[in-house]
From TrEMBL:
Predominant place of localization: cytoplasm
Protein localization: Cytoplasm
rRNA processing found in the keyword field: no
Gene Ontology, cellular component aspect: cytosol
Originating organism: Candidatus Uhrbacteria bacterium RIFCSPLOWO2_01_FULL_47_25
Name of this chain's protein: SsrA-binding protein
Gene Ontology biological process: trans-translation; trans-translation-dependent protein tagging
Lineage of producing organism: Bacteria, Candidatus Uhriibacteriota
UniProt cross-references to PANTHER family, sorted A to Z: SSRA-BINDING PROTEIN (PTHR30308:SF2), TMRNA-BINDING COMPONENT OF TRANS-TRANSLATION TAGGING COMPLEX (PTHR30308)
Length: 160
């Protein structure tokens, strides 16, 4: 599972409560651009909205990746109407979308992209249900990271 992009700021800004894996609907040029390592999901988020209804079926929802920057593939010709920030549709199972809708409606929760990776030659995205961290939580994270770093140094020093 080679990771193409990772949103490291998401784990710093949010508590990740649950994760889901989804496919992404992309053009060929966007896939090539991502596989060469270009793209940015740091400021991206996922929006779940009602899909266009077809007849008297029950309400369906669709998930969109908003504000993800995927530049055009450099070796391809110029595309006159290409928008690198266009919303991209995410492919979830219906029951996953319903579960997300129930959890998102809780105050203070949002969906953020955590990483984009390849799985069996397909591009997948890991989506996390997140609650924002306060500055106190961020300080605790820094403190824990520094303690772990000191412990590793101490262990390495003792081994010599």
């Amino acid at each position: 599972m080679p990771v193409i992009m990772e949103n490291k700021q998401a784990r710093w800004r949010y508590h990740i409560l649950a994760t889901w894996e989804a496919g992404i609907v992309l053009t060929g040029q966007e896939v090539k651009s991502l596989k060469t390592g270009h793209g940015d999901i740091r400021n991206a988020y996922i929006s779940v909205r009602p899909a266009a209804s077809h007849g008297k079926r029950r309400q369906r929802f669709e998930a969109l990746l908003i504000n993800a920057h995927i530049p055009p593939y450099t070796k391809a010709g110029p595309l006159p109407s290409y928008d690198p920030l266009r919303p991209r549709r995410l492919l979830f199972h219906g029951h996953e979308l319903m579960a997300m809708m129930g959890k998102i409606q809780t105050a203070g929760l949002t969906l953020v992209p955590l990483r984009v990776y390849t799985l069996n030659r397909r591009l997948k995205i890991l989506v996390g249900l997140a609650r924002g961290k306060s500055t106190i939580d961020k300080r605790a994270t820094i403190r824990r990271r520094e303690t772990e770093r000191e412990l590793r140094r101490y262990v390495l020093k003792r081994k010599r």
